[in-house]
Known about the structure:
The chain is 26% helix and 25% strand. It is built from 13 helices and 15 strands.
Amino acid sequence: MSARLAALLIGVLVTVPALAQTYDILLKGGRVIDPANQIDAVMDVAINGDKIARVAASIPGDQAKRTIDVAGYVVTPGLIDLHAHVFGYPGALWPDDTQLTTGATTVVDCGGSGWRTFDTFKETVIDRTRTRVFSFINVVGKGMVGSDAENDVSDMDPEKTAAKMAEYPDLTVGIKTAHFARKGYTALERAVEAGRLSDKPVIIDMRITTEYDRTTERIFEIMRPGDLRTHSFSDHQVELLDRATRKIHPYAREARKKGLLFDVGHGNGSFVFPVASDAMKDDFPPDTISTDLHNSSIFSTKSDMPDVISKFLNFGMTLPDAIAKSTVRPAQVIRKFPELGTLGAGRVADVAVFKLRRGVFGFTDSKQRRLLGTQKLEAVLTLRAGKLVFDQDGLAFPKWDTVGDYEIIAIP
Ligand SMILES: [Zn+2]
């Protein structure tokens, strides 16, 4: 062997350890479900800094500074909760406490702020949370602060709403109209006008529908493709199902064909098992899964993302489908795909790890009914932009008896 070749080989050998730790974190051996990339397989996910570096069948553990064994767990893109309350509404919750601990790394506040209050929302919540927070801005300038404000047509200004959205085009992802307890379609029409001006979707809530002389058919006519109806599986003035036949109304199918979207928005009063069960039996699943999490629903039904997903699993939805409706689909709806909602290489490393438990589990709906299910999804670990922010099972930590004894601190 020539001296030159030997030197070269030594050079190679010496450089191996430097090359070895290519990745900061490696999630090893989990069932990776990334519907945007048609992945549902046991794979490894490598992360560098705040980005997904690589997803592959086998990435050696010595290539990472930190390897987390997630064999037996489900690994997904960080969930996107399309409908929750983190500002304005008196029942708003702090998203880091209530979303990151459930595998959701992105939350859309559904109408808490209007154009008058959005700046405060940004300063006090959006800029301060580790959770990524977006806004469906309320067509009501004051936001979702009670019925007097929400019925005040004079404060529903499409131009001012669209102007505020133009100021923050990345943070405002659509317009919300809700709780309008007056006759007519003004609230919806103003919201749709703001949607037209901003070229963003509108999401409508309950009471906008069949109360107050409104018809669902007319509402669906005013809505545009890409607009959403939330609380789809409630029984308020039932819109989806014919009560006699328990089948989906033809106009709901027409609306879906036209491109209208049906979101869950579980909440405290907006998800009932018979409606969800009949809709699933009649092949009308939601387009997107969301919680409407606020300070009542978190106690009454604990309807966080894994809870709502679990309910649909028990009504026959597959896990990959439920994950798609909680990741890539909401990302598409708010036009944040492919930046969000996928584990594609180069995308932000928002990752959730779950345990899919099998056994007998109780769930509750908004009408205090009980469902006994056989599957339950539980969040165990969350990474937000490559940082470990939640680790229920201590998957990233060494076993306690392998890392030395307790410190004895001398008492002075
Ligand atoms: Zn809500």
